């Protein structure tokens, strides 16, 4: 086919070009902007605005926001050129520009340095157009972005075609005359096929023992998990203030009934009482729940909290914090549930949550029915690896390498993952293999691949006879370099 030009439509979040007063009212739900901000609200607004470029509505000038004034606009003043007199900012704008400021109880936008600050009224500053929003989007923003960019294949094809027509590659003098390249405006045709979906196998005690997915969809009706997990010690914490007082108890009761009906073993009694808590005390509540359960179970080997069911706060943004505390600090397996879904007590929702819980406690929901080529015939481990880099413009934070590997055979449904921080924007995974010299043991081998291979043998009783390694995120120019280094690292482990 020769050279090909790959074109796609992409989307990115940008700041909305509106007045700063409208921005804070909209994004922080401040209905009354005539009142002074609390210290907490001021800190939130400062964090959101810092680094944004604004344009003045009364002059053709732009500034970059460096902070907010501590005092409200009504209390700000500056020294005049005579070095003796003081003038308030409110009075200055009235006399200089005949502008009577309305939101004088709000802090002023600060630009310039700390030693020579420039204070600007929020109501006279408009966010400059075309600025990327590089911070993490909240749940509402993600939903809005997906809604705006989701296109049917035919509509996407039309959008790409319009882009090609606008770019006019074939009439571009540099492309056509200097390089002698002609770009067709029609899409290329390639041979393709749709692979048949694999048959799924469920437990023999269910009324239906197999499932044949249609268009990527199937359900658990009349089916049971192939291997139901066991939950003996659990509890629940509700951080939602809108739910009825008795609803968390009913929610857990129906969820447990669903888990039992699908083949799990689940103790219906929590190890410590179900509780509701203030979302402002998330960390303290989670730590306290961990301590209480440990005290109740007596810190005996194998006797620990296996599952913490969490009904999330009504406002978004707490999920990441909860997962960080539970998974990385307390070592608790958690299942988070949205309060609006919990309130419905929906059978379908319970079914979906039960599938997640089963996998988290060591069970398996289904396996492939029949043999898998290049996997079933001999013990095989499947690896997946990728490196995530910091956002553009970040020149200091580490890149994060992640490696996962299958932990069962021949079904290949369980996996274990490892992560490792490495040098900034380094694409080659540094910790696949590493070694160090021990005074007593001599050369000691280590690394993520070795650790996962040992886990595979412990889990299956076999050494893998075959390794399948999927590596994502490598450009064509780096592929050979990454292949040589990482293949060598894997061979050193073997």
From TrEMBL:
Matching entries from SUPFAM superfamilies are given as: PAZ domain (SSF101690), Ribonuclease H-like (SSF53098)
Ribonucleoprotein among keywords: yes
Annotated PAZ domain residues: 19-129
Domain Piwi residues, every copy: 307-494
The GO biological-process annotations, alphabetized, read as:
defense response to virus; regulatory ncRNA-mediated gene silencing
Any one of the GO CC terms = ribonucleoprotein complex
Q: Which GO terms describe its molecular function?
A: RNA binding
Alphabetically sorted, this entry's keywords are: Repressor, Ribonucleoprotein, RNA-mediated gene silencing
Hey, which family's this protein in? Answer: Belongs to the argonaute family. Ago subfamily.
This chain's protein is named Uncharacterized protein MANES_04G011400
Organism of derivation = Rhizophora mucronata (Asiatic mangrove)
């Amino acid at each position: 086919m020769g050279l090909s030009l790959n074109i796609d439509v992409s989307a990115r979040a940008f700041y909305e070009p509106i007045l700063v007063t409208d921005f804070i009212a909209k994004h922080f739900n401040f209905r009354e902007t005539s009142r002074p901000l609390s210290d907490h609200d001021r800190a939130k607004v400062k964090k959101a605005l810092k680094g944004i470029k604004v344009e003045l509505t009364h002059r053709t000038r732009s500034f970059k926001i460096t902070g907010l004034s501590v005092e409200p606009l009504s209390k700000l003043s500056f020294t005049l050129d005579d070095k003796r007199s003081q003038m308030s900012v409110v009075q200055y704008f009235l006399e200089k520009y005949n502008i009577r400021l309305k939101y004088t109880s709000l802090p002023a936008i600060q630009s310039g340095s700390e030693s020579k600050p420039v204070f600007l009224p929020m109501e006279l500053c408009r966010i400059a157009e075309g600025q990327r929003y590089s911070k993490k989007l909240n749940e509402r923003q993600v939903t809005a972005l997906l809604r705006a960019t989701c296109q049917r294949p035919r509509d996407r094809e039309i959008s790409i075609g319009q882009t090609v027509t606008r770019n006019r590659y074939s009439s571009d003098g540099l492309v056509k005359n200097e390089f002698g390249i002609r770009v067709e405006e029609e899409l290329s045709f390639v041979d393709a096929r749709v692979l048949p979906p694999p048959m799924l196998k469920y437990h023999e005690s269910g009324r239906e023992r197999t499932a044949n997915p249609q268009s990527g969809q199937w359900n658990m009706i009349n089916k049971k998990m192939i291997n139901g997990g066991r939950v003996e010690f659990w509890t629940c914490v509700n951080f939602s203030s809108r739910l009825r007082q008795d609803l968390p108890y009913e929610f857990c009761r129906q969820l447990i009934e669903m888990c039992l009906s699908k083949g799990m073993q689940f103790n219906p009694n929590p190890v410590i009482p179900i509780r509701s808590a203030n979302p402002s005390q998330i960390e303290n509540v989670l730590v306290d729940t961990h301590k209480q359960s440990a005290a109740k179970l007596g810190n005996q080997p194998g006797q620990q909290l296996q599952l913490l069911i969490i009904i999330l706060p009504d406002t978004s943004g707490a999920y990441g914090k909860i997962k960080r505390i539970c998974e990385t600090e307390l070592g608790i397996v958690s299942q988070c549930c949205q309060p609006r879904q919990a309130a419905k007590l929906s059978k379908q929702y319970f079914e979906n949550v039960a599938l997640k819980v089963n996998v988290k406690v060591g069970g398996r929901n289904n396996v492939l029915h029949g043999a898998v080529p290049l996997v079933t015939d001999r013990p095989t481990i499947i690896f997946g690896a990728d490196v995530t880099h910091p956002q553009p413009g970040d020149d200091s934070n580490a890149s994060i390498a992640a490696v996962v590997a299958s932990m069962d055979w021949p079904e290949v449904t369980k996996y274990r993952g490892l992560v490792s921080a490495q040098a900034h924007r380094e694409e080659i995974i540094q910790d696949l293999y590493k070694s160090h010299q021990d005074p007593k043991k001599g050369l000691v081998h280590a690394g993520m691949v070795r650790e996962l291979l040992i886990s595979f043998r412990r889990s299956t009783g076999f050494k893998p006879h075959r390794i399948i390694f999927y590596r994502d995120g490598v450009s064509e120019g780096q592929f050979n370099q990454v292949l040589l280094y990482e293949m060598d690292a894997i061979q050193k482990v073997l």
